[in-house]
Each structure stands twice: as structure tokens, then as C-alpha cells.
User: What shape does this take?
Amino acid sequence: MNHLFRWWRILRPRPLLPKPSLFSGFALCSEVTAPEEDELQEHSGPILPSLRDPILDTVACLIKVGARRFLSSNRFSELVSSLAPYHVDRMLISLKGDADSSFYLFKCLREQHGFCHSRFSCFLVAHVLAREKRLRDVLWVLRSLVEKEGSMDEAMDTLKNMKLDKIKPDLISYNSLIYGFAILGMVEEAEKVIGIMTGEGVIPNHVTYTTLINGYCQKGDIKEGLRIREEMIHRNFQMNHVTYGTLLNGLCRQGLVHDADRLLKEMVTLGLEPDQIAYCILMNGYSKQGNMQKVSQLFGDMCSKGIVPNAFAHGATLYGLCKSGKLFEAMNYFESLVNSEAVTDVFLYNIMIDGCVKFGYVSEAVKIYEQLIKAGLTPSMVTINSLIFGFCKIGSLVEARELLETSESLGLLPNEISYTILLDGYCAVGDTEMMVQLFNQMEEKAIQPNVITYTILVKKLCEQGHLEKSFHFLREMCRKGISADPVVYNVLIKRFCDQHDLRMAIYLHDEMLRHGVMPSPATYHVIINSLCLKGKVEIAEELLDSRVKQGVALDKRLFHLIMSAYCIRRNIQKTVVLFNKMKEVGFRISIADYSVVINRLCKRNLSYSAKVFFVMMLRDGISPDKEICSILIQSFEREGDLNSVNALQAKMIQCNLDWFYVRGET
Assistant: This one.
């Protein structure tokens, strides 16, 4: 990577400001302690009649106690009814750009208290989040604004009323409507607006089409995005950097990096030189695939054209090196950037910490973290979560938990990912007591567990036989509106089956269907296997039939389980019926399927029935192998059926199988 750094050294911008103090921003961190109960009481005076500013008083309490704890307290619940939109506007201004606290306050008020935010609050929070590059959260805030301002049906009605009042909507009006539909994911409706505007003689522009392309790309429908591009070309629109950047990003997000590369070359052919954003998008795409040759080539092309690599270009290079297993090259490259004062963003440190942790070099990750602090940068929760994962990976759970607790003193808010990683660490050592304690701590801090959190907890509790507690957490998930995935149900179903409680296993299966969770083939494998072992083969077959009729995607092994159970019962007729049903469903039948039945029948000394399946196999055009012939010969000889032995010998010669070799095995 020396040539990459050579380019960077030539083109890097010189710093205009002095480097910040090594400890700027951290002087008070070590003095911050966990809030005591009386801290909440300190701010328990009346909100309106006060010598102090009540808004600043509330914000001070929020900052001191911590956003999550304060917003989940009874004190805040009492204040909500007194809050007006302008109060919240002032509170958000007073938070001075604290993205975590601002967003949590905004979201908590809207989702838990039904608060109607002002447009100012929406735009302020969106701006703070955008500065932190939290684009998903920005989108959530903007969607809430669109929903607050009125539905898209109302917007369409407004458009119609404008026409009735003989007010002709202009291009800006139509583009605003298209943007509204696109941001809500209703891209097809947005495209219909283009038909309306062209019918009214209003010609779409670059903004119109780029908004549509971005809408389709956000939905993951890059094919439709490219179709809109073709329409732009057909209408003689000259594509610009924004349009190309949107398409490049959409292609790379879908993993279609080679198609994105061709699009970059197309830009050059049309005389549109790729800019810094275009290069960074493509570099990022190739880095995720670990293709360092292309990353290096694009980096060189960018530098040769006088484009100064930014943090994203360096990030793509570092990530690509880590992804391709070249950790030490990544560390050397990172060190050269640090020495050149080119690392001014925490996310570059995060890439290196994550890379070191994944390769098991936790001590190196800690050193990079210490470098980050000395550089005067504030770590993010991504930084902390990576280190927690690293400590858990090497079994240093005490250090992991201490780091989680320390993060709050740095002004960071631990999230569900932080706790889930730590829960998984304690799960690995089987400490369910600490797992439950951490889970309760999440609830105390109003941190919503996700489906992975519950899955880890339920699985470990099941393994240790705490079925009642596991079932309680499943119920809690449903109560909180968290959709459990099949994995959570499968863990519980398997445990109940292991304890021969089929009633609860089937109840959980039915509950999955009631909650719209589609059971997986693994779900049915556990239930059907347990039914067969308990001798309830008919119930197992009924369950299988009902799933087949409903068109559920099943596994051949389910048929094998029931056929084997019927073979044990010597019910050959049912076995044949099920085998034919397996064919009708559309499964491709192989010699392995016949081997399952023939082997089971021969072990039960049912050689005549085994012979029936052997003939069926030949009729299906499947040639026997020496293993299946060996099983049949052993069975025929045990029963003294020499005629069948001779007939099978003739068939083996016909199929070019070594009779003497098989005979010798028997």
C-alpha cells in the first residue's frame, strides 16, 4: 500500500488550525459519576412558576441524569402534559447538538406520548443527525414530518383543488409531491405523478427523475432505477453527478459492483469526470468484497486526477485490507495516516478497532482506542461495542462490563446492541443469572431489547432447563410488539419435545401461525420427529398433509421420518403412499431416498417389501449402487431367498457393478 500513501502525501491538505489539546473534551469525564436518586428530586420543582428557566432546568436534569433514565422517570411523565411544541423546540436547542439525547427525546415524545412536534424540531433533529451521518434516523424524522403535515391522499386532493381554483401547479409543486411519495416508499405512486404533470404540460427535470431513481434504490429495486435512467436518456436529459452517484450507490448496496464500475466508465465516455463521491462509493463497494486490487486502482486514478482522498476513501482502503485478511498492512497504512495528521474522524479508528477485534488482536484494539482518546476525539457507541465484543470474545467479561458502564461517563448512551453483545458473552459461559440481571438493567434504562437479545436469552434458559422463564420472555416479546422469528420458537419447541411435552410444542406451533410467523422446515422436523418417536405417526402425517395442501415449503427429510416410522410398524401400504406423495409434491427423487426406505425395511427383515421399492427405483430410471445391493443381498441371504440373490446378481452385472466385491463385503 506504499503507493497509496505516496499519492496521499502529495495531495493531502495542510491543517489550518492547531491540533486540539490531547485531553480537550475529556477533562470532566473522570469526575462524572452514576446519578443518585436525589438527583431526580433536585429538579422536582414546579415547571412554570420558577425563578430559573424551567426549560433549561429540565435540560440540565436530562443531561446530568442521562436521557434514557430521565425520560423514563415519573418526573418526566408529569412534565409531558405541560409541554407545548415551543418548549420542546427550546429543549432541543439547549441540547447543543447532542445527537443521541436529541433523537431519543424526539422519538420518546412522539412514540410513547403521542407528542406532535413542530416543523422546527423536525428539521433541527434531522440536521443534527445528518451531521453525525445517521441517515436512517434522518429518514425516520423526515417521514414523521411528512405524516404530521398530512397524508399523501390529502396532498393529491390539494393538487386537484388547485386545478379547480384555476391555479396551475408548477414544477416545484410536482417535485415536492414526488419527493413526499418517494420518502414514504411509495415510488410507484410518485411515478404516476410524472404522468399527471406531463399531461398538464409541466416537463420533469433532473430533480424529478433523480428523486425517483433514489426512491427505487432505497427500496432495493435497482432494476427500476436503471429503467428511469433509460427514460432520462430517451428524453435527452444529460445525466449529472448526482444522478450517477445515486445509481452507483444503489448498485453497490445490492453488491452489483461490476455494474457500478461500468457505469463509472460510462461517465468518463460521456465527458463527465467522476468526482470524489463517485470514486468513494465504488471504492467502498469493492472494499466490502475484499477486492483490494480494484480499491488500489481507483485510489490511484482519483489521486492522479488531483482529487484529494477524504476520510471515506481512506476508510474504504482500511476496510478492504481488513476484509481481505491483510490486517498488518491495514495497521501500517493507518499508522501512516495518523503520523500525517490525516485521521480526523472517529470512524477510521472504528474500522481498525473492529478489524483487530475480529482477528482476535484485542490488545491492539485497546491501543488504538487509547490513541483515539489522546487525539482528542470522542469515541462513538460503535467504538465501545466493538471493544465489548472483543473482550467477550476472549472471555474478559469483567472488562467488557466495566467498559459498558464507563461509556456513560463519556456522554455516550449504551444501546440494545451493547447489551446484546454482553448478554451473548455471558451466555457463552452459561451465566444466566448475570444475563437476566443485564436484561433487567436494559429495562431500567428504557433500552428496548431486540429479537436477537430475546433469542440469546431464551436459548440459554432453555438449555439450562428454565422453560417457565423462557416462555415468560416469549410472552413479553409478543406483548411489546416485537416479532419473534422462527429461531426463538424452534428453541422452545425443541426443548418441550425433548421433555416429551408435545401438547406445548404443538401449541407453540399454532401460536407462530397466529402471530404471522412462518414455521421453518426445522420447526416441522422437530415436531414430526417427536410425534413419530411417541408413536403418533398418524398425527405427524396429518400435520404434513395440511402443510402440503397450504403450499408450505417443506424438506424431504420430513417424509423420510414418517416413512421410517411406518416401516417400523410394517405398514408398507402407507410407506408407498407417502413415497408417491413425495414425488407428487415435486421433490426430485434420488437413490438416497430409496436407500432410506430399503435400508429400514431390510433391518426389519421385510425383504419382499424392500424388493418392491427396488423395482420402483428401477422403473424411475435410477441405477442401483453397490451399497444398496449389499444391503439387499444380506437381507435375501438371511431369509434364504436365493432366487432373489441370483436375480440381483444378474442386474448388477447388467449395471457393471462388481458382484464379487459386493459378495465379499457380505
